[in-house]
Amino acid sequence: MIHENYKYGLKDGKLVHVNEVDSGLKCNCCCPSCEQPFVAHKGKILTAHFKHHSPTNCKYAFETALHYLAKEIINEEKYLLLPHHYWLIPRRLSEFYEDATNKLFWYPPPFLKVKFLRVNFTEVQIEKYTENFKPDIKCLIGERTLLIEISVTHFIDEIKLEKIKAKNLPLLEIDLSMHGHDIDKKTLRNILFNNKANMKWIHNPRDVKKKAEKKAIASIIKSFLDEHSVTLISQGIKHLVHECPLYSNSNYSVSYFDCCSFCNYRLSTIEYKDEDGLQFKKIECVGHIKPELDVLLQQSGSVEASRD
Description:
Layout: E1 8-11, E2 14-17, E3 38-41, E4 49-52, H1 61-77, E5 79-88, E6 111-120, E7 123-126, E8 137-141, E9 144-151, H2 158-167, E10 171-175, H3 185-194, E11 199-203, H4 205-228, E12 230-235, E13 240-242, E14 253-255, E15 266-273, E16 279-285, H5 292-300
Parallel strand pairs: 9-10
Antiparallel strand pairs: 1-2, 3-4, 5-6, 7-8, 8-9, 10-11, 12-13, 12-16, 13-14, 15-16
């Protein structure tokens, strides 16, 4: 049995709250989904709500009403705070190598950083066909187009996704699946403009291009590091590293904790014990390299990035 407790109905093609209309069939409202007559129940005990006048198997009255409401808000405001992706090349070279102690969370550069920036729309079109499919919302930003899908129980399927990728159009998904029937316009407006977690790009041509460019640069740097790395050994209680390539005196020793652990030229460290139980650290390093590496990093726009 379908639980019916709807706050919004359609009246003369416009979404209205149950508190804005007369009781009973005098409300002259219908279901946003199946368009069958609604009855407005506005007694003194229960919270006011709509129900279908006749028994029905309609399952999407709430979802469709939420679509209408979200579209109405975006059309009124004509802007959104959209996620902008920045792909970063780290300057700390160990970020290019898997951390043996943190394998579950490791992934190679470039790293993603997201900022939310306001984008104003010159026009907002509701359910207008674009090419051979119909998005929930089509926003125009000058000559550019942004498509928006409002997802409650139905999300982007593979067929629609392939159409979007084929046309190389930007599509943003706004996920409202976590919100219940008691949501009102004020609450939804706050969600749309303050809850950044419910937005994600399904496809963004500019982002795909930027990520590919940074990934290619990261691959070049990784190949360079693999080719020019050397192995150093630390030993003793203080883990002294002999022949550190950052020092001109080849006999100079530095403590691993004072130098290597904070050095941008360290690639990785492996701890092990020899057959006598003595503890060593094997350090992969490119500290001996000439300025070519710094030139590569500078050209890549590398920053002090991490995986957060």
